[in-house]
């Protein structure tokens, strides 16, 4: 083989090597471009992650505030319930005192006719009891007028002897003579 052939073969090998180098350079450029894209995406992901972490911290802070507000509201509700229970007890006590005062003002009404409840119920019960007592008083007065007994002793009458036999009448007459 000649030098020319060797030279041609070498030129071909060099051309192949250059083609391979160019292909490698092109692949390297592509790889660098992809790496730059990945690095850019990674930077964006990190930025998004930081933003999400910041947002999560804000949400945690809001959650903490909401929990504190809920606890404060629960404390207020508990206090309000305790106050309401105290008010109910006081109202019950005052209602009982009102019933007692109304009964004391009307001693002619039996306490059994006014069992109690609310102030309105007590008023209604007192009115009903007053009607019952008035009706009873009216009835008793009308009965007492019809069954009036005259004042003093009744006039004396001779005993009715019409139901006695003749022998009993004689015996009774003899007894009366003996007493005189």
Structure write-up:
The protein has 180 residues and is mainly alpha-helical. The protein has a domain at 106-143. 81% of the residues lie in helices and 0% in strands. It has helices at 3-105, 119-146, 166-179. The longest helix has 103 residues, at 3-105. The chain is rod-shaped, with a radius of gyration of 61 Å.
Keywords:
mainly alpha, 3 helices, 180 residues
Report the end-to-end length measured between terminal Cα atoms. 203 Å
**How confident overall, as mean pLDDT?**
88
Proportion of strand residues: under 5%
Series of secondary-structure elements, N-terminal to C-terminal = HHH
- What class, by secondary structure content? mainly alpha
SS summary, helix count = 3
Q: How many DSSP E strands?
A: 0
Low-pLDDT parts are none
Helix content: over 70%
Q: In one word, what is the shape? A: rod-shaped
How many strands, what sense, and barrel or not for the largest sheet? none
Alpha-carbon Rg, integer: 61 Å
List the helices and strands and how they pair.
Layout: H1 3-105, H2 119-146, H3 166-179
Give a concise summary.
With 180 residues, the chain is mainly alpha-helical.
């Amino acid at each position: 083989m000649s030098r020319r052939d060797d030279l041609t073969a070498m030129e071909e090998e060099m051309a192949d090597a250059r083609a391979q180098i160019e292909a490698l350079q092109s692949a390297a450029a592509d790889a660098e471009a992809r790496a730059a894209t990945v690095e850019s995406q990674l930077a964006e992901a990190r930025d998004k992650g930081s933003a999400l972490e910041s947002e999560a911290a804000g949400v945690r802070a809001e959650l903490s505030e909401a929990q504190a507000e809920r606890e404060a509201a629960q404390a207020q509700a508990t206090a309000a319930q305790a106050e309401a229970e105290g008010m109910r007890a006081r109202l019950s006590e005052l209602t009982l005192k009102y019933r007692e005062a109304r009964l004391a003002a009307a001693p002619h009404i039996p306490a059994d006719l006014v069992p109690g409840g609310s102030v309105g119920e007590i008023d209604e019960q007192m009115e009903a009891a007053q009607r019952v007592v008035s009706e009873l008083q009216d009835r008793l007065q009308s009965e007492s007028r019809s069954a009036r007994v005259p004042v003093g002793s009744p006039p004396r009458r001779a005993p009715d002897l019409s139901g006695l036999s003749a022998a009993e009448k004689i015996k009774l007459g003899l007894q009366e003579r003996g007493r005189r």
